[in-house]
Every structure is written in structure tokens, then in C-alpha cells.
Amino acid sequence: MSSPDKLVYMANQIGKFFVSQGEKEAVEGVATHIRKFWEPRMRNKIFAHVDAGGAGLDPLVRKALDTLRQPAS
């Protein structure tokens, strides 16, 4: 699972699953899924991809990844 393209594809597929729930719920759903089911190495690689510009990520998925980086309140 080293290719950013594969991780982007997977993240976007998760986003497509949740998109019908509305933006707020979809962002939360994507973030929750990635937090629960992606191992830390995968999350670190997708965050590195975001830092490099995040090419190919759907906007909803990008928002979800941004929420994952925020400290829990």
C-alpha cells in the first residue's frame, strides 16, 4: 500500500459511499472510517500526500482528512 494513487483512490471511494448523507455527515463518516480502519502508516502516507498538494483527492475527502489532523476538543 505504498502508492499515494492507491490511497487516494481508496479515500475517494470511501467519500463516494458517504456523499449521499450530506456534506457534514459525509465528512464525519469518511474521517471516522479512516481513523478506525486505516493503519497509521496509511494515514501518514495520505497526510504526506495532502502536504504535497493532495492531487486527486475529492474536496469532501480533503475536508475529512483535515478534520483528522485537528486536535480533539
What's the quick description here?
The protein is mainly α and 73 residues long.
Describe the structure.
There is one protein chain. This protein has 73 residues and is mainly α. The protein has one domain (4-69). The chain is 73% helix and 0% strand. It has helices spanning 4-18, 23-37, 40-51, 59-69. It is globular and about 30 Å long. The mean pLDDT is 93. InterPro entries: Formate_DH_dsu. It comes from Pseudolabrys taiwanensis.
| Rg measurement, Å | 11 Å
The largest pleated sheet is described as: none
Classify the helix fraction into a percent range.
Answer: over 70%
Query: What average pLDDT do the residues reach?
Result: 93
Total number of beta strands: 0
Strand content: under 5%
- Give the assembly state of these chains: single chain
Q: What is the N-to-C order of secondary-structure elements (H for helix, E for strand)?
A: HHHH
| Anisotropy-based shape | globular
Q: What structural class do helix, strand and pairing data support?
A: mainly alpha
What's the tally of helices? 4
Tell me the count of domains: 1
Pfam families: FdsD
Organism: Pseudolabrys taiwanensis
Protein name: Formate dehydrogenase
Tell me the layout of helices and strands.
Blueprint (H helix, E strand, L loop, with lengths): L3 H15 L4 H15 L2 H12 L7 H11 L4
Keywords:
0% strand, mainly alpha
